[in-house]
Specification:
By secondary structure, the chain is α/β, with parallel strands linked by helices. Helices cover 45% and strands 17% of the residues. The protein has helices spanning 12-22, 33-39, 41-49, 64-77, 90-99, 117-122, 129-142, 155-162, 186-191, 201-204, 209-219, and strands at residues 3-7, 27-31, 54-60, 81-85, 104-108, 147-149, 165-168, 196-199.
């Protein structure tokens, strides 16, 4: 069964409340820049003490040695998944991979907020976003990463082409897209090959987050 990952894009108190409420369910928790800057490593420990996996979503993109040191630190904290931008280049990804012991490194291909106009912004020669995503997924695999983050529109081809663990954000049960362009329902993302789906606003913005989680788990076969 695909993993449901709950994005804790909220403050520390709200995050801890959500973790307690959702502790009975087989979910992972995603800690992004906002929460990590507020709570630091304490929120990682809080999630681990709840018996759940931590997805640290910092999307690292820096010189190879700086990323290497960050990977080593995340590994020592007990983080389960860590993101870094595949656009950081082969050397950065390889150094990160060689520095990881138990940590599962995920290469972010392109953010789900980007549409085809992003190619014009980059002045890219790729004919479509999907072509760029597939190229970056290939680089991630060749560099030794555990998986990649991509939208539901590319996940089937990424999975078939690389066999990597695939993470799909931008999942919605509501009609709201927010600032994301490429979004899918939970069951459609899993049907296309997602190994992990990431949901935030539909869960932490609900008056009944446990109810939403139960619904999503049922919809993806859990």
């Amino acid at each position: 069964m695909a993993v449901l990952c709950v994005a804790l894009d909220v403050d520390k108190d709200k995050a801890q409340e959500l973790i307690k409420v959702l502790r009975p369910y087989p979910v992972a928790f995603k800690v992004g820049p906002k929460l990590f800057l507020e709570a630091g490593s304490s929120i990682v420990r809080f999630v681990k003490e709840s018996g759940r996996e931590v997805f640290l979503d910092l999307k690292l993109h820096d010189i190879p040695n700086t990323v290497k040191l960050a990977v080593e630190e995340a590994d020592s904290l007990g983080v389960d998944y860590l993101t870094l931008h595949a656009l950081g280049g082969r050397k950065m990804l390889e150094w990160a991979s060689l520095s990881s012991k138990r940590l599962k490194l995920l290469g972010v291909t392109l953010l789900t907020s980007h549409g085809e106009e992003y190619l014009r912004f980059l002045r890219s020669n790729f004919p479509t976003l999907k072509d760029m995503v597939l190229y970056l997924a290939d680089i991630a695999k060749e560099s030794g990463l555990y998986g990649v983050v991509c939208s539901g529109e590319e996940v089937a081809q990424v999975k078939e082409r690389t066999g990597l663990f695939t993470v799909v954000p931008g999942i919605r049960v509501s009609q709201s897209r927010g600032d994301q362009v490429r979004v899918l329902t939970p069951e459609e993302a899993v049907r296309r090959g997602a190994d992990m789906i990431v949901m935030g606003r539909d869960i932490y913005g609900s008056e009944d987050p446990a109810g939403v989680v139960e619904e999503v788990l049922e919809r993806i076969g859990g």
